[in-house]
Structure formats: structure tokens, C-alpha cells
Design goal:
The chain has 243 residues and is an alpha+beta fold. Helix content is 23%, strand content 24%. β3 and β4 form a beta hairpin. It is globular, with a radius of gyration of 47 Å.
């Protein structure tokens, strides 16, 4: 009769041998199943619903963020260089210059009849009040404009332009240093004496300008020492805003 103790030992040894293999097979099967599950998830993912957001960073590199906390990185604005066509242009200075010409219409872009605000925009610079006078009658100069130029405003309207020094002339080229005889010869019967004892004036005949004058003040030798243009009656006194 077989020994029971020996039979039990043999069974135990057999179970241990095959039982160990069973455990290893089960562990391998579980690992394989997990790998297949991960692979299936990757195949089922959709690019349109991918939670990762990628945007350009400042330095041109790429930045990724997780789906739980999406972040958008925007590029830092750049400043255009001085040579770039989109760069902001520097102010070119006032439009009233030493090359501007005087006429019955005004001086350069600033016209007789402009409001102070219109005059400022036309001149491309601030209109600076000259000391003296009042809001009803006051002289103004153009900030950084040519010396010797003053604009007379009556009730905030430009009515006259005075040239006391400098190279500015009329459109025809007559200014400080020109002579009475040259002006009379150029304009003929459009030139009259006055206003005042030491001045001559150009008198227009065209309807829009009949109330305007260009006046040259001359000295005893007949040389022009100042000139002005404007509207009657503000053009008549040599110096306005004195009353």
C-alpha cells in the first residue's frame, strides 16, 4: 500500500510546479491586456478633441500645456525700427516757414478768416499769445515758426498778418528791403498811398478780396521796413490792439 505521507508530498510538489507557472501566465496575460488597452485608447483619440494646446512663444519656440489647465501664450508686440516703413514719423515742424508767402489770403496755409483753432491746425503748431491786448484783440505767433511774424486775431478770428522782420515777401517777391518805386512799377494803378503817411497799399479789384489789402511801410528813403496783409478795417493801423 502506498505511503500516504509520500503521496501528499508528491502532490504538493506537483501543485507548486504547475501552480507557479499558472501565476506567471496570469501575470503575463494581465500585462498584455493592459498594453492592448493603452494602444486602443491611442487609436481612438481624435486630434480635434486633443486637450493639448500649442502656441508660439516670444522666442519662436513651441509651448505645450496639459488639458486640465489650458494656456494660450501670445507673442509680445515688437517695436518697429526707425527704418521700417510702418514706423511713426517724427513731426516735420510748423507749416509756416521763412519760405511762406504773404497775400490777401493770408500767410502760407494760415488764411484770413481762420478761427484760432483752424489756424493752429493749418500752421501745424501752437499759436502763442503775445503779451498785451485782450481776448477781443490779440497778436499770436506760431510756436517754432519764423521770427518777425505775428497773426492778429479779433474775437478769436485771424484778420491780419504782420511781417516785422525776416525774409518773407509777398507772392510777387516784395518784402523788407524792396523799394516803393519797384512796387508801384509792378502793380501800377492797383497801388495807392496810405494808410498813414509812410505806407503804400495794394487794392484788389476782384469781388472776394475787395475788403482786403496788402500794406508796405516805407522809410524816408522809400525802402520797405515792414509789411502786412489783412481785412478792413483791421489792416489800417500800423500797430493794432492799442486802443
Amino acid at each position: 500500500m502506498p505511503n500516504p505521507l509520500r503521496r501528499a508530498t508528491a502532490v504538493h510538489q506537483l501543485d507548486s510546479r504547475f501552480g507557479g507557472n499558472t501565476v506567471r501566465r496570469r501575470a503575463l496575460a494581465a500585462a498584455l491586456a493592459a498594453a492592448l488597452l493603452v494602444s486602443a485608447c491611442g487609436l481612438l483619440s481624435d486630434d480635434s478633441t486633443d486637450a493639448t494646446t500649442t502656441t508660439a512663444a516670444d522666442d519662436g519656440s513651441m509651448s505645450e500645456t496639459g488639458s486640465d489647465t489650458p494656456t494660450i501664450v501670445t507673442a509680445t508686440p515688437t517695436t518697429t525700427g526707425a527704418g521700417d516703413g510702418m514706423a511713426e514719423e517724427e513731426p516735420s515742424g510748423p507749416s509756416v516757414t521763412a519760405e511762406s508767402k504773404l497775400s490777401t489770403a493770408g500767410l502760407g496755409p494760415v488764411q484770413i478768416g481762420h478761427s484760432l483753432e483752424d489756424a493752429r491746425e493749418a500752421a501745424g503748431a501752437l499759436m502763442i499769445a503775445v503779451p498785451g491786448g485782450s481776448d477781443a484783440c490779440r497778436y499770436y505767433t506760431v510756436q517754432n515758426g519764423p521770427e518777425g511774424v505775428r497773426f492778429l486775431a479779433v474775437n478769436s478770428e485771424i484778420v491780419r498778418v504782420d511781417i516785422g522782420s525776416g525774409p518773407i515777401t509777398t507772392i510777387s517777391g516784395y518784402g523788407i528791403g524792396s523799394t516803393r518805386s519797384e512796387i508801384v512799377e509792378a502793380f501800377g494803378d492797383r497801388i495807392e498811398d496810405g494808410p498813414g503817411l509812410s505806407a503804400i497799399q495794394y487794392v484788389p479789384v476782384d469781388a472776394p478780396d475787395v475788403d482786403k489789402r496788402v500794406v508796405w511801410e516805407v522809410n524816408e528813403e522809400g525802402a520797405v521796413i515792414s509789411l502786412r496783409a489783412g481785412r478792413l478795417p483791421h489792416i489800417e493801423p500800423r500797430v493794432a490792439c492799442t486802443g
